Amino acid sequence: MVRERYSKKISPFVEERLPDFVKDQYPTFVGFLKKYYEWMEQEGNPVERTSSLLSFRDVDESPEEFLGYLQNEYLGSFPNEFVADKALIIKNIQEFYKTKGTVQSFKFLFRVLYAVDVDIFYPGEYILKLSTPLWQLDTTIKVSTYFGKEWEKTIGYMVVQEGSGATAVVDNIRQRYESGVLVTEIYLHDIAGTFNSTGRITGTFVESGITKTVFGEPLFSVVDNLSIIAGGTGYNTGDQVVFTGVCDGSGAKGYVSSIDASGSIREVVLHEFGINYQTTPTVTVQSVSGTGASLTATINTTATYPGYYADSDGGFYSSEYVFQDSAYYQQYSYVIDVNVEDGVSVKNYKEAVKATVHPAGMKMYGQMTLNQSIDSGMGNSEIISTAVSTV
Question: Which of 24, 128, 142, 205 could be stapled to 315 by a disulfide with Cβ–Cβ 3.0 to 4.6 Å?
Fold first, then answer.
Protein backbone atom coordinates (compact mmCIF):
# COMPACT_ATOMS: atom_id res chain seq x y z
CA MET A 1 0.00 0.00 0.00
CA VAL A 2 1.36 3.45 -0.95
CA ARG A 3 1.08 6.05 1.77
CA GLU A 4 -1.23 8.95 0.92
CA ARG A 5 0.83 12.07 0.35
CA TYR A 6 0.12 15.29 2.22
CA SER A 7 -2.04 17.41 -0.11
CA LYS A 8 -3.51 20.21 2.02
CA LYS A 9 -0.79 22.84 1.72
CA ILE A 10 -0.42 26.14 3.55
CA SER A 11 2.10 27.88 1.27
CA PRO A 12 -0.44 28.90 -1.45
CA PHE A 13 -2.40 30.88 1.14
CA VAL A 14 0.46 32.69 2.88
CA GLU A 15 0.31 35.84 0.74
CA GLU A 16 -3.45 36.39 0.98
CA ARG A 17 -3.35 35.94 4.74
CA LEU A 18 -0.85 38.77 5.28
CA PRO A 19 -1.91 42.43 5.77
CA ASP A 20 -1.78 44.66 2.69
CA PHE A 21 0.92 46.96 4.13
CA VAL A 22 3.21 43.95 4.63
CA LYS A 23 2.69 42.79 1.06
CA ASP A 24 3.29 46.35 -0.21
CA GLN A 25 6.27 47.35 1.94
CA TYR A 26 8.01 43.96 2.52
CA PRO A 27 7.75 41.82 -0.62
CA THR A 28 11.02 40.03 0.19
CA PHE A 29 9.68 38.91 3.57
CA VAL A 30 6.51 37.65 1.89
CA GLY A 31 8.58 35.61 -0.57
CA PHE A 32 10.73 34.24 2.25
CA LEU A 33 7.68 33.23 4.26
CA LYS A 34 6.14 31.47 1.29
CA LYS A 35 9.35 29.55 0.58
CA TYR A 36 9.62 28.61 4.26
CA TYR A 37 6.21 26.97 4.23
CA GLU A 38 6.99 25.25 0.95
CA TRP A 39 10.03 23.76 2.63
CA MET A 40 7.99 22.74 5.71
CA GLU A 41 5.57 20.93 3.39
CA GLN A 42 8.25 18.81 1.73
CA GLU A 43 8.33 15.09 2.61
CA GLY A 44 10.12 14.47 5.88
CA ASN A 45 9.73 18.03 7.20
CA PRO A 46 7.50 19.11 10.15
CA VAL A 47 4.21 20.09 8.42
CA GLU A 48 4.23 17.01 6.18
CA ARG A 49 5.21 14.72 9.08
CA THR A 50 2.58 15.99 11.54
CA SER A 51 -0.14 15.64 8.93
CA SER A 52 0.88 12.01 8.30
CA LEU A 53 1.10 10.76 11.89
CA LEU A 54 -2.15 8.77 11.78
CA SER A 55 -1.20 6.99 8.57
CA PHE A 56 2.23 6.18 10.04
CA ARG A 57 0.53 3.88 12.58
CA ASP A 58 -0.26 1.57 9.68
CA VAL A 59 2.81 -0.66 9.41
CA ASP A 60 2.38 -0.95 5.65
CA GLU A 61 2.62 2.85 5.28
CA SER A 62 5.09 3.70 8.01
CA PRO A 63 8.55 4.82 6.82
CA GLU A 64 11.59 2.88 7.97
CA GLU A 65 12.73 5.56 10.44
CA PHE A 66 9.32 5.51 12.14
CA LEU A 67 9.17 1.71 12.38
CA GLY A 68 11.41 1.79 15.46
CA TYR A 69 8.72 3.68 17.38
CA LEU A 70 6.15 1.04 16.51
CA GLN A 71 8.58 -1.63 17.64
CA ASN A 72 8.99 0.07 21.01
CA GLU A 73 5.21 0.25 21.37
CA TYR A 74 4.25 -3.29 20.30
CA LEU A 75 7.48 -5.29 20.74
CA GLY A 76 8.79 -3.68 23.89
CA SER A 77 9.85 -7.01 25.42
CA PHE A 78 11.66 -8.22 22.26
CA PRO A 79 15.38 -7.68 21.62
CA ASN A 80 16.13 -4.76 19.31
CA GLU A 81 17.52 -6.96 16.57
CA PHE A 82 16.09 -10.18 15.14
CA VAL A 83 16.14 -12.00 11.82
CA ALA A 84 12.44 -11.87 10.88
CA ASP A 85 10.80 -9.02 9.00
CA LYS A 86 10.05 -6.39 11.62
CA ALA A 87 6.93 -4.97 9.96
CA LEU A 88 5.45 -8.44 9.47
CA ILE A 89 6.01 -9.33 13.15
CA ILE A 90 4.36 -6.09 14.33
CA LYS A 91 1.32 -6.81 12.15
CA ASN A 92 0.88 -10.29 13.65
CA ILE A 93 2.07 -9.73 17.22
CA GLN A 94 -1.46 -9.85 18.65
CA GLU A 95 -1.79 -13.54 17.79
CA PHE A 96 1.55 -14.18 19.49
CA TYR A 97 0.46 -12.50 22.71
CA LYS A 98 -2.74 -14.58 22.73
CA THR A 99 -0.67 -17.80 22.83
CA LYS A 100 2.01 -16.54 25.21
CA GLY A 101 3.44 -19.36 27.34
CA THR A 102 2.41 -22.18 25.00
CA VAL A 103 4.74 -24.44 23.05
CA GLN A 104 3.67 -22.62 19.86
CA SER A 105 4.74 -19.26 21.30
CA PHE A 106 8.21 -20.61 22.14
CA LYS A 107 8.64 -22.00 18.65
CA PHE A 108 7.48 -18.69 17.13
CA LEU A 109 9.92 -16.69 19.26
CA PHE A 110 12.94 -18.75 18.23
CA ARG A 111 12.02 -18.56 14.56
CA VAL A 112 11.68 -14.79 14.84
CA LEU A 113 14.90 -14.22 16.78
CA TYR A 114 17.25 -16.87 15.36
CA ALA A 115 15.44 -18.66 12.49
CA VAL A 116 15.83 -22.01 14.27
CA ASP A 117 13.40 -24.70 15.41
CA VAL A 118 13.29 -25.81 19.03
CA ASP A 119 11.53 -28.53 21.00
CA ILE A 120 9.79 -27.86 24.30
CA PHE A 121 9.06 -30.61 26.81
CA TYR A 122 8.02 -30.82 30.45
CA PRO A 123 9.95 -33.05 32.91
CA GLY A 124 6.83 -33.15 35.09
CA GLU A 125 5.31 -35.58 32.60
CA TYR A 126 7.92 -38.17 33.62
CA ILE A 127 7.43 -38.03 37.38
CA LEU A 128 6.35 -41.13 39.26
CA LYS A 129 2.95 -40.39 40.78
CA LEU A 130 2.12 -42.73 43.62
CA SER A 131 -1.36 -44.29 43.61
CA THR A 132 -2.40 -42.44 40.46
CA PRO A 133 -2.51 -45.17 37.77
CA LEU A 134 -6.04 -46.08 36.72
CA TRP A 135 -6.84 -49.60 37.90
CA GLN A 136 -9.05 -51.20 35.26
CA LEU A 137 -11.51 -54.07 35.84
CA ASP A 138 -13.13 -55.32 32.64
CA THR A 139 -16.58 -56.85 33.09
CA THR A 140 -17.99 -58.72 30.10
CA ILE A 141 -20.96 -60.69 28.83
CA LYS A 142 -20.92 -63.22 25.98
CA VAL A 143 -23.62 -63.63 23.32
CA SER A 144 -24.01 -65.28 19.92
CA THR A 145 -24.94 -62.82 17.18
CA TYR A 146 -25.96 -62.68 13.53
CA PHE A 147 -24.67 -59.17 12.84
CA GLY A 148 -20.92 -59.81 12.97
CA LYS A 149 -18.86 -56.62 12.73
CA GLU A 150 -21.96 -54.43 13.10
CA TRP A 151 -21.65 -54.94 16.85
CA GLU A 152 -18.37 -52.97 16.85
CA LYS A 153 -20.41 -49.87 15.96
CA THR A 154 -22.19 -50.06 19.35
CA ILE A 155 -19.01 -49.03 21.22
CA GLY A 156 -19.92 -45.99 23.31
CA TYR A 157 -23.64 -46.74 23.08
CA MET A 158 -25.98 -48.58 25.46
CA VAL A 159 -27.16 -52.19 25.39
CA VAL A 160 -30.42 -53.37 26.98
CA GLN A 161 -31.63 -56.87 27.91
CA GLU A 162 -35.22 -57.77 27.23
CA GLY A 163 -37.12 -58.98 30.27
CA SER A 164 -34.58 -58.10 32.97
CA GLY A 165 -34.28 -54.46 31.85
CA ALA A 166 -30.54 -54.53 32.66
CA THR A 167 -28.51 -51.88 30.84
CA ALA A 168 -24.85 -50.98 30.34
CA VAL A 169 -22.56 -48.89 28.13
CA VAL A 170 -20.33 -50.73 25.65
CA ASP A 171 -16.57 -50.19 26.13
CA ASN A 172 -15.29 -52.66 23.56
CA ILE A 173 -16.27 -55.65 21.41
CA ARG A 174 -14.24 -58.84 20.98
CA GLN A 175 -15.37 -61.58 18.58
CA ARG A 176 -13.83 -65.05 18.28
CA TYR A 177 -14.73 -68.70 17.91
CA GLU A 178 -15.02 -70.70 21.12
CA SER A 179 -15.71 -74.43 20.86
CA GLY A 180 -16.83 -73.91 17.26
CA VAL A 181 -19.26 -71.09 18.10
CA LEU A 182 -18.80 -67.45 17.02
CA VAL A 183 -18.98 -65.58 20.32
CA THR A 184 -19.32 -61.80 20.74
CA GLU A 185 -17.82 -60.68 24.05
CA ILE A 186 -19.13 -57.26 25.11
CA TYR A 187 -17.04 -55.19 27.53
CA LEU A 188 -19.29 -53.07 29.74
CA HIS A 189 -19.32 -50.21 32.23
CA ASP A 190 -22.05 -48.31 34.10
CA ILE A 191 -23.98 -51.56 34.53
CA ALA A 192 -27.50 -51.09 35.92
CA GLY A 193 -29.61 -54.12 36.90
CA THR A 194 -28.73 -57.80 36.60
CA PHE A 195 -28.23 -59.59 33.29
CA ASN A 196 -29.70 -63.12 33.10
CA SER A 197 -29.25 -66.06 30.72
CA THR A 198 -32.66 -65.91 29.03
CA GLY A 199 -33.29 -62.41 27.67
CA ARG A 200 -32.14 -61.18 24.27
CA ILE A 201 -29.57 -58.37 24.18
CA THR A 202 -30.30 -55.30 22.05
CA GLY A 203 -27.67 -52.77 21.01
CA THR A 204 -28.26 -49.47 19.20
CA PHE A 205 -25.98 -47.04 17.39
CA VAL A 206 -26.33 -44.01 15.12
CA GLU A 207 -24.88 -44.13 11.60
CA SER A 208 -25.32 -41.31 9.05
CA GLY A 209 -28.02 -39.81 11.24
CA ILE A 210 -30.00 -43.06 11.37
CA THR A 211 -30.47 -45.10 14.55
CA LYS A 212 -29.77 -48.78 13.91
CA THR A 213 -30.29 -51.87 16.08
CA VAL A 214 -28.39 -55.15 16.47
CA PHE A 215 -29.37 -58.21 18.51
CA GLY A 216 -27.65 -60.94 20.49
CA GLU A 217 -29.10 -64.28 21.55
CA PRO A 218 -29.52 -65.05 25.29
CA LEU A 219 -26.28 -64.84 27.24
CA PHE A 220 -23.84 -67.71 27.67
CA SER A 221 -23.25 -68.75 31.26
CA VAL A 222 -19.55 -68.57 32.14
CA VAL A 223 -17.23 -69.36 35.02
CA ASP A 224 -16.91 -66.07 36.85
CA ASN A 225 -15.01 -66.81 40.06
CA LEU A 226 -12.63 -69.25 41.76
CA SER A 227 -12.33 -69.76 45.52
CA ILE A 228 -9.54 -71.63 47.36
CA ILE A 229 -10.89 -73.98 50.02
CA ALA A 230 -7.55 -75.66 50.75
CA GLY A 231 -4.15 -74.67 49.37
CA GLY A 232 -2.48 -78.09 49.55
CA THR A 233 1.33 -78.46 49.28
CA GLY A 234 4.00 -78.85 46.61
CA TYR A 235 2.36 -76.73 43.91
CA ASN A 236 4.19 -74.37 41.53
CA THR A 237 3.17 -71.07 40.00
CA GLY A 238 1.82 -71.67 36.52
CA ASP A 239 0.14 -74.96 37.35
CA GLN A 240 -3.03 -75.15 35.27
CA VAL A 241 -6.53 -75.09 36.70
CA VAL A 242 -8.85 -77.59 34.97
CA PHE A 243 -12.66 -77.54 34.85
CA THR A 244 -14.53 -80.86 34.52
CA GLY A 245 -17.88 -82.36 35.41
CA VAL A 246 -21.29 -83.18 34.05
CA CYS A 247 -21.96 -79.97 32.12
CA ASP A 248 -22.04 -78.66 28.58
CA GLY A 249 -19.51 -75.87 29.25
CA SER A 250 -16.04 -75.55 27.82
CA GLY A 251 -13.18 -73.14 27.40
CA ALA A 252 -12.63 -71.89 30.97
CA LYS A 253 -8.92 -71.54 31.85
CA GLY A 254 -6.97 -70.58 34.93
CA TYR A 255 -3.58 -70.99 36.57
CA VAL A 256 -1.83 -70.81 39.93
CA SER A 257 -0.37 -67.32 40.33
CA SER A 258 0.97 -67.37 43.91
CA ILE A 259 2.15 -69.98 46.44
CA ASP A 260 3.78 -69.91 49.86
CA ALA A 261 7.10 -71.50 50.94
CA SER A 262 5.54 -74.98 51.20
CA GLY A 263 3.90 -74.78 47.79
CA SER A 264 0.44 -74.12 49.17
CA ILE A 265 -1.74 -72.27 46.68
CA ARG A 266 -2.43 -68.71 47.80
CA GLU A 267 -3.89 -67.24 44.62
CA VAL A 268 -5.28 -68.41 41.29
CA VAL A 269 -6.14 -66.40 38.19
CA LEU A 270 -9.13 -67.08 35.94
CA HIS A 271 -8.20 -65.66 32.52
CA GLU A 272 -10.73 -67.38 30.23
CA PHE A 273 -14.37 -67.75 31.31
CA GLY A 274 -15.54 -70.27 28.69
CA ILE A 275 -19.18 -70.66 27.56
CA ASN A 276 -22.30 -72.78 28.19
CA TYR A 277 -21.62 -73.71 31.82
CA GLN A 278 -25.17 -74.69 32.82
CA THR A 279 -23.99 -76.35 36.04
CA THR A 280 -21.03 -75.61 38.27
CA PRO A 281 -17.93 -77.53 37.09
CA THR A 282 -15.51 -79.46 39.25
CA VAL A 283 -12.17 -77.67 39.68
CA THR A 284 -8.80 -79.45 39.88
CA VAL A 285 -5.18 -78.33 39.56
CA GLN A 286 -2.80 -80.14 37.24
CA SER A 287 0.60 -80.43 38.93
CA VAL A 288 3.59 -82.78 38.85
CA SER A 289 4.24 -82.39 42.57
CA GLY A 290 1.30 -80.65 44.21
CA THR A 291 -1.37 -82.38 46.24
CA GLY A 292 -4.26 -81.61 48.54
CA ALA A 293 -5.66 -78.44 46.92
CA SER A 294 -9.39 -77.87 46.90
CA LEU A 295 -11.01 -75.16 44.76
CA THR A 296 -14.58 -74.26 43.87
CA ALA A 297 -16.05 -72.22 41.02
CA THR A 298 -19.22 -70.18 40.51
CA ILE A 299 -21.03 -69.48 37.25
CA ASN A 300 -22.80 -66.35 36.09
CA THR A 301 -23.76 -64.41 32.97
CA THR A 302 -21.19 -61.69 33.67
CA ALA A 303 -17.51 -62.09 34.57
CA THR A 304 -14.67 -59.75 35.46
CA TYR A 305 -11.10 -60.14 34.20
CA PRO A 306 -8.10 -59.70 36.53
CA GLY A 307 -7.40 -56.01 37.09
CA TYR A 308 -4.63 -54.11 35.34
CA TYR A 309 -3.24 -50.58 35.14
CA ALA A 310 -4.88 -48.77 32.23
CA ASP A 311 -2.14 -46.12 32.01
CA SER A 312 1.50 -45.67 32.99
CA ASP A 313 1.30 -42.56 35.16
CA GLY A 314 2.52 -44.56 38.12
CA GLY A 315 5.86 -45.15 36.48
CA PHE A 316 7.01 -47.85 38.85
CA TYR A 317 6.81 -50.40 36.04
CA SER A 318 8.52 -48.19 33.43
CA SER A 319 12.10 -46.94 33.26
CA GLU A 320 10.86 -43.65 31.80
CA TYR A 321 9.55 -42.44 35.15
CA VAL A 322 11.57 -40.95 38.02
CA PHE A 323 11.03 -39.49 41.47
CA GLN A 324 10.33 -35.78 41.82
CA ASP A 325 13.37 -33.73 42.84
CA SER A 326 11.75 -30.25 43.18
CA ALA A 327 14.21 -28.82 40.63
CA TYR A 328 14.35 -30.40 37.18
CA TYR A 329 11.79 -33.16 37.66
CA GLN A 330 8.81 -31.21 38.95
CA GLN A 331 5.42 -30.01 37.74
CA TYR A 332 6.61 -26.43 37.16
CA SER A 333 9.68 -26.79 34.95
CA TYR A 334 10.14 -26.85 31.21
CA VAL A 335 13.08 -27.51 28.88
CA ILE A 336 14.04 -25.71 25.66
CA ASP A 337 15.91 -28.15 23.45
CA VAL A 338 18.11 -26.55 20.77
CA ASN A 339 20.36 -28.33 18.29
CA VAL A 340 24.02 -27.49 18.90
CA GLU A 341 24.55 -26.95 15.17
CA ASP A 342 22.14 -23.99 15.24
CA GLY A 343 24.70 -22.07 17.29
CA VAL A 344 22.20 -20.69 19.83
CA SER A 345 23.14 -21.11 23.49
CA VAL A 346 21.18 -20.48 26.68
CA LYS A 347 23.01 -17.21 27.32
CA ASN A 348 21.79 -15.99 23.90
CA TYR A 349 18.10 -16.51 24.51
CA LYS A 350 17.65 -16.59 28.29
CA GLU A 351 16.72 -12.93 28.76
CA ALA A 352 14.55 -12.80 25.64
CA VAL A 353 12.56 -15.85 26.75
CA LYS A 354 12.15 -14.50 30.28
CA ALA A 355 10.85 -11.18 28.93
CA THR A 356 8.45 -12.53 26.31
CA VAL A 357 7.05 -16.06 26.74
CA HIS A 358 8.24 -17.40 30.10
CA PRO A 359 5.19 -18.48 32.20
CA ALA A 360 5.22 -16.98 35.69
CA GLY A 361 6.11 -19.50 38.37
CA MET A 362 7.88 -21.90 36.00
CA LYS A 363 11.55 -22.87 35.98
CA MET A 364 13.38 -22.79 32.65
CA TYR A 365 16.10 -25.23 31.56
CA GLY A 366 18.07 -25.09 28.33
CA GLN A 367 19.19 -28.27 26.61
CA MET A 368 21.74 -28.55 23.82
CA THR A 369 21.50 -31.67 21.65
CA LEU A 370 24.23 -32.84 19.29
CA ASN A 371 23.46 -35.56 16.75
CA GLN A 372 26.51 -37.05 15.04
CA SER A 373 26.58 -39.53 12.17
CA ILE A 374 29.30 -42.16 12.53
CA ASP A 375 30.37 -44.49 9.73
CA SER A 376 29.50 -48.00 10.88
CA GLY A 377 32.09 -49.53 8.59
CA MET A 378 29.36 -51.65 6.98
CA GLY A 379 28.70 -50.29 3.50
CA ASN A 380 26.65 -47.10 3.43
CA SER A 381 25.08 -47.54 6.87
CA GLU A 382 25.57 -44.96 9.60
CA ILE A 383 25.17 -44.88 13.38
CA ILE A 384 23.55 -41.78 14.91
CA SER A 385 25.21 -40.74 18.17
CA THR A 386 23.34 -38.25 20.37
CA ALA A 387 24.87 -36.13 23.17
CA VAL A 388 22.73 -33.97 25.46
CA SER A 389 23.77 -31.14 27.78
CA THR A 390 21.26 -29.46 30.09
CA VAL A 391 21.65 -26.08 31.82
Answer: 128
